[in-house]
Amino acid sequence: MIIAIDGPTASGKSRLGKNLSDKLKIDFVDSGKLYRIIAYLYRNSNSNLNKFLKSKNWDEEFKRDDFSNDDLYSPEVSDISSKISTNKEVRKIVTDYLRKLAKKNNLIVAGRDIGTVVFKNADLKIFLTAEENEREKRRLKQLLEKGYSDDKIDRELFIRDKRDSRRKIAPLKPAKDAIIIDNTNLKKEETLNIVLNEMKKRGII
Ligand code: DC
Questions:
Q1: 0.85 exceeded by the pTM?
Q2: What is the pLDDT of residues 8-17, one digit of tens each?
Q3: Could you identify the atom of ligand 1 that is nearest to the CA of residue 35?
Q4: Residue nearest to atom 12 of ligand 1 (CA)
Q5: Per-residue confidence at 157, pLDDT binned at 50, 70, 90?
Q6: CB 14 within 8 A of CB 96
Q7: How many whole angstroms from 31 Cα to the centroid of ligand 1?
Q8: Model confidence over 23-41: pLDDT tens digits?
Q9: In the CATH scheme, what is the code of domain 2-192?
Q10: How wide is the angle at C-alpha 27 spanned by C-alphas 23 and 32, nearest 5°?
Q11: 201 C-alpha to center of ligand 1: Å?
């Protein structure tokens, strides 16, 4: 079984993915983290992107658990991850890896193009969104908790969203068959219950 969760930055995809994963005992993969791993290693590489991509064994890099939040979630790495994710080779590396994982496991996968490109036949597609004010508030809270000072926090959120939505390759948009959930005024448990009820209705669980 594959459950695809797409949506803009700070819309609650990871939270929902983790909650579903706990409830259903299915592995959760945040594909944004994979783009961030590529971005972080590329930033430290001093190399040309295509050469750099070929120099790594990505199956190994994606399995590493020694990256800190600071490494992967700094505003700088956020920006680089959004920029390099417009590259075809970068997208292929992540897409191939996710499809390989899905051959062996049931998966819940969060990202931008999971229901539209990576798993077009997913058993359930969710497009999660929330109003801009709310998403900005959530992201600020996350970054402050991670220790970034207020003035270091740029408005990367909406710049990235625009770039992620307007790119030619695998842009962020709801799949035609996705259920769209605006969780601006929903508690985490309420969002989870909407999804679980939908799965019951469809006989998936
Ligand atoms: O979900 P996130 O904010 O951690 O993702 C970081 C960047 O990675 C995001 O700005 C765009 C890119 N991304 C993507 O292009 N496709 C995905 N499926 C997931 C993330």
A1: yes
A2: 999 999 999 9
A3: 8
A4: 82
A5: confident
A6: no
A7: 7
A8: 999 999 999 999 999 999 9
A9: 3.40.50.300
A10: 115
A11: 30
